[in-house]
Every structure is written in structure tokens, then in C-alpha cells.
């Protein structure tokens, strides 16, 4: 029954090996099928993620384009608003120039109207005048043109304003040109 010198133990080992081999092959087949399913599921998930990334990319690009378009429109609108306000000033200057009045008071009234119009225009844009007469010199807002001594003003204070400055909030647009008192 054992054939050519094979022992019972060897036959049992071969049968056990054959059973293990069959069991291993079945397990390998099961694992391969599960792996294939996982790979397919992973491919589907990857495709979904890639589509989502592409959609997000398109949304970001559209938002950037819309932002740029809105920025250009806002710049144009602001520029047009500024131009419109200064057109009024220019019209007033042309009217003053063409005036036949020889009366100095009338010309002064016209200049006052123009200056008032410019001041209102600046105010509408949040621009404030810097007029630091008798204030302590501040290099953040003032530009010292020169310095001189004075008995009437304390050292380090502004004696005279040559040109007023202009600011919007705390950002200086034009520094006030001043004379500063020294000891």
C-alpha cells in the first residue's frame, strides 16, 4: 500500500502538503479577488477625487477671473467718480476765467467757491488736510523746509506752514511743508 519505500509518515506529509497547497491556492485566489476589488474601488475613488480636484480648480480659476474683473470695474468706477468731481472744479475755473468782472471781490468769491468745491471733493474721498500751525513738529506728517528761532513759539513746534499736507486716514498723501522753531 505504501509503494516503493514510502513510509506512512511521508505519505501523510504529502497529503498534508497537498491539502495545504490546495488551501493556500484557494486563499491566494480569494486574496487576489479581494485585491482586484480593492484596486477597482481605489480606481473609482481616485477618479472621483480627480474630478473633484478638477472642479475645484475650475471654481478657483473662475473666482480669480471674477475677482480680477470686479477689481478692474471698481478701479474704473472710482476713477470715473474722481474725474467727474474734478470736471466740476475745472468748469468752475473756466467760468471764473471767462468772467468779465473787474471786481476783485467777485473773483475772490469765485475762487472761494472753487476751493470749497475742491475741499468737499477731498472730503468725499476721505482725504483730510494737514495744517499743523503751532503744533509740535511730527516727521510722520510734516516736512521741515527750514528752521528758525522765535521768541513766540516753543522749540520743536511749527512756526509757519508753507504748504498744507494731505492724508487719508493715517496714510500721508502729501507732507505739510513747514518752518520749525529751534532754540
The tally of domains stands at 2
End-to-end CA span:
130 Å
Unreliably modeled segments: none
Radius of gyration: 44 Å
The geometry reads as: elongated
Portion of residues within helices: 55-70%
Strands in their spatial order, largest beta sheet: 1-4-5
Secondary-structure-based class equals alpha+beta
Characterize the largest beta sheet: strand count, sense, and whether it forms a barrel.
3 strands, antiparallel
Average pLDDT for all residues = 88
Strand elements, count: 6
Total DSSP helices: 2
Q: What proportion of the residues form beta strands (DSSP E)?
A: 15-25%
Q: Strand-and-helix sequence, N→C?
A: HHEEEEEE
Q: Identify the quaternary structure here.
A: single chain
State the main characteristics.
single chain; 183 residues; alpha+beta; Nucleotide Exchange Factor Grpe, Chain A, domain 2; 2 domains; 3-stranded antiparallel sheet; 3-stranded mixed sheet; 61% helix; 18% strand; elongated
Amino acid at each position: 500500500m505504501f509503494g516503493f519505500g514510502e513510509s506512512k509518515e511521508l505519505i501523510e506529509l504529502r497529503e498534508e502538503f497537498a491539502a495545504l497547497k490546495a488551501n493556500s491556492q484557494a486563499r491566494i485566489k480569494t486574496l487576489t479577488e479581494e485585491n482586484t476589488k480593492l484596486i477597482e474601488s481605489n480606481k473609482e475613488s481616485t477618479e472621483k477625487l480627480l474630478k473633484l480636484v478638477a472642479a475645484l480648480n475650475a471654481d478657483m480659476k473662475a473666482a480669480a477671473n471674477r475677482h480680477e474683473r470686479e477689481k478692474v470695474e471698481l478701479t474704473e468706477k472710482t476713477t470715473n467718480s474722481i474725474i467727474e468731481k474734478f470736471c466740476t472744479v475745472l468748469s468752475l475755473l473756466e467760468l471764473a476765467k471767462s468772467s468779465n468782472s473787474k471786481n476783485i471781490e467777485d473773483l475772490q468769491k469765485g475762487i472761494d467757491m472753487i476751493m470749497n468745491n475742491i475741499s468737499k471733493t477731498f472730503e468725499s474721498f476721505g482725504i483730510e488736510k494737514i495744517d499743523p500751525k503751532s503744533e509740535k513738529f511730527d516727521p510722520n506728517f510734516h516736512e521741515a523746509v527750514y528752521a528758525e528761532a522765535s521768541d513766540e513759539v516753543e522749540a520743536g513746534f511749527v512756526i509757519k506752514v508753507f504748504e498744507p499736507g494731505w492724508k487719508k486716514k493715517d496714510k500721508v498723501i502729501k507732507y505739510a511743508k513747514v518752518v520749525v522753531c529751534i532754540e
